[in-house]
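F.,

This is the one I mentioned.
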């Protein structure tokens, strides 16, 4: 094989490899397909040249040379078509002339292949074969050159101030490479053979220069100015929010995976579907631009999802609208966070109010308790002075003692409840300290007791001897209170809530079990989702569980849940025991 053949073979391999690479990167994009077709034509041209330079029969040589025309005859229309596609040009005379350009290229290739009017005969040389031009060669060759030159001229319009420095640099290099290919082909493949100067042909090999620029752009920047859509698809796919491109008719042309996940359908199934199928409240005004419009999105299962919708009109280079771009953001987590912040603010205000009330209530409770103790002391002295000969008076005195004891017990219960409310309303800073989990659970139970009685639930408690834990006591009180209140919601009237503790030297466990209606497996799976609050069979609502999970996680523990519909729910909190040195 001669050195000229090796050059042609290398050009063929490079062009074919790049054609496959460009096509694979974006097979659904027309600009990518056109670029791949152009490189495939160059590969066909170089392959034919490699073959004919290694043949001995002049008949087969001229046939192979003529067969190569199917490569270079179509290069001119493809270059122009590719540039027009990138420019979004659908109305110019060049775009309207494209079908005729392809038809003329096909007719020229057939004429070139089947007659002697394009090429007369093959001429042997020291390095392979050359040829003599036929009388109609300029007629069949001229249009291909014309379309290529027109494509280069139109490509020059990509060099505008709005383009990035990378796009301008790539455009200049691409124009130079195509222009060099045209000049090299005209000089070495047309002009020199017409003058009967038998030199090597560089037309097919010069396409390697353009292929090299393309390869450098894709390898270094993952982008080439004539095949931008591959990168655009990757950017669209990387967006965390749903995005859709709508055509002028309002149907979805392209949708990313985030939108497909949001509506619960494959991205391919969204093509051609009206966006109003999922956003029925959306206006169909094609000229409107939206900014953060709150709407409800209907997914494939019919569930409504709160979303924020923004849109812009997509225009071509002549400023004509060609569609709309929509960005759709899932607002479930944002709204849940907003509701939690509102609830937190209300609870903080209530906590401040409760702290003030507790402060005011503590004083009268203190002197009521002191007065009752003093009354019990004095009543005891009076009871001792009543003789046995006065049975009626002795009975009244005995009843008075019972009333005093019951009053003291009631005041003591009020005092414990007030103290529990005070500890809950105390803001604190979440500092870690040694605490007895049994006392924290009992404190939460005192606060939850009115709610339990109101719901008609019975609380059974069992506490084992357990080691202390290093914790933020206020956070654990809140944890246990949330679990008890949720259990009260679950059981309804005449239900039973069981609370017991156990543990060992390393772990402390708190079990909260209710005999309510339980939950479905789907509800259990999503129980700690911030945007999910399960509806309970008793009509209550499970709240605060994501906060419970976060508190346990911050303390290095585990929160497990077991539930079965109709058979109640069990929560188990495992917390690490305090180390001995604590």
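My design for it:
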């Amino acid at each position: 094989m001669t050195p000229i053949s090796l050059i042609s073979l290398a050009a063929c391999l490079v062009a074919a490899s790049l054609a496959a690479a460009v096509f694979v990167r974006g097979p659904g994009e027309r600009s990518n397909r056109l670029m791949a077709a152009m490189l495939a034509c160059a590969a066909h041209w170089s392959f034919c040249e490699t073959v004919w330079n290694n043949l001995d029969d002049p008949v087969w040589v001229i046939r192979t040379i003529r067969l190569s025309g199917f490569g270079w005859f179509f290069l001119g229309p493809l270059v122009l078509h590719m540039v027009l596609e990138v420019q979004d040009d659908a109305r110019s005379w060049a775009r309207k002339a494209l079908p005729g350009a392809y038809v003329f290229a096909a007719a020229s290739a057939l004429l070139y292949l089947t007659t002697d009017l394009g090429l007369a005969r093959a001429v042997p040389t020291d390095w392979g074969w050359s040829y003599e031009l036929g009388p109609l060669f300029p007629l069949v060759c001229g249009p291909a050159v014309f379309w290529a030159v027109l494509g280069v001229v139109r490509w020059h319009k990509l060099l505008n101030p709005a383009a990035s420095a990378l796009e301008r640099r790539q455009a200049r290099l691409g124009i130079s490479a195509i222009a060099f290919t045209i000049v090299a082909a005209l000089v070495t493949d047309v002009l020199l053979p017409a003058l009967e100067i038998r030199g090597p042909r560089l037309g097919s090999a010069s396409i390697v220069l353009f292929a090299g620029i393309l390869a450098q752009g894709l390898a270094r920047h993952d982008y080439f100015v004539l095949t931008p859509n591959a990168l655009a698809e990757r950017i669209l796919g990387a967006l965390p929010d749903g995005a859709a491109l709508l055509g002028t008719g309002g149907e979805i042309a392209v949708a990313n995976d985030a939108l497909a996940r949001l509506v619960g359908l494959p991205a391919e199934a969204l093509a051609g579907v009206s966006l109003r199928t999922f956003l029925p409240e959306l206006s169909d005004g094609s000229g409107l631009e939206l900014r953060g419009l709150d709407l409800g999105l209907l997914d494939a299962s019919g569930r409504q999802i709160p979303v924020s919708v923004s849109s812009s009109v997509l225009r071509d280079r002549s400023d004509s609208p060609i569609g709309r771009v929509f960005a759709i953001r899932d607002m479930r987590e944002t709204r849940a966070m907003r509701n939690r912040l509102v609830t937190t603010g209300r609870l903080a205000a209530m906590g401040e109010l409760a702290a003030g009330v507790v402060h005011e209530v503590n004083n009268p409770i203190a002197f009521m308790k002191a007065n009752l103790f003093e009354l019990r002391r004095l009543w005891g002295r009076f009871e001792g002075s009543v003789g046995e000969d006065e049975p009626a008076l002795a009975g009244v005195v005995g009843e008075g003692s019972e009333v005093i004891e019951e009053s003291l017990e009631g005041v003591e219960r009020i005092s414990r409840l007030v103290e529990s409310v005070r500890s809950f309303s105390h803001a604190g800073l979440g500092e870690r300290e040694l605490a007895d989990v049994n006392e924290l659970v009992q404190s939460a139970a005192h606060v939850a007791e009115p709610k339990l009685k109101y719901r008609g639930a019975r609380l059974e408690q069992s506490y084992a001897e357990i080691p202390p834990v290093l914790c933020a006591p206020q956070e654990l009180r809140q944890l246990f209170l949330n679990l008890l209140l949720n259990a009260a919601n679950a059981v309804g009237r005449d239900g039973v809530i069981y609370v017991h503790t156990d543990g060992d030297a390393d772990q402390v466990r708190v079990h909260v079990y209710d005999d309510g209606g339980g939950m479905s497996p789907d509800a259990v799976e999503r129980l700690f989702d911030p945007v999910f609050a399960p509806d309970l069979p008793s009509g209550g609502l499970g709240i605060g569980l994501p906060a419970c999970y976060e508190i346990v996680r911050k303390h290095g523990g585990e929160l497990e849940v077991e539930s079965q519909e109709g058979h109640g729910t069990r929560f188990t909190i495992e917390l690490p025991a305090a180390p001995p040195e604590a």
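The chain is about 55% helix and 15% strand.

Talk soon.
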